[in-house]
Amino acid sequence: MKKVLFDTVVRTTEALIRLSDWFYAAVIWIPSNLGELSRVTIARLGLFLMNAIDEETVKKSNSLLPSEQKAELQKQQIELHLLSAASMVRDHYLETGEWTDGHSEAIEALGNQLLNECDWEEDDIHDYLRSVVEAGTDLHYGIEGSP
Question: Model's pTM, two decimal places?
């Protein structure tokens, strides 16, 4: 009977921890993506209205930007979004008062995106994330596998 009760408590505790991790991951994801969604929606609405008013001017304006500049602007937008998201993770910690594995995973994912999508150097990523995580907190930014 003890074993059944013990196993039940273990499974319930594990399930509650997973549920808590999922909830906090959603709490972090929603605000970081809600702003992006609203900006994209507003931009699409504006473009739709501009096309309805004067489609020729819109086509002429789009042809003025070379595709290389468009790609660079898109890359900068992604980079700014990632930098902002790092601050949101820290701010969520400040609101809850508890740093979880979800926070660490989010910071790691942001670092990976900066490395792969924005061509940042690894040292620069760690320097930036350290400054964000440690700013106004009692946290210490550490790198797994380092002494």
Answer: 0.52
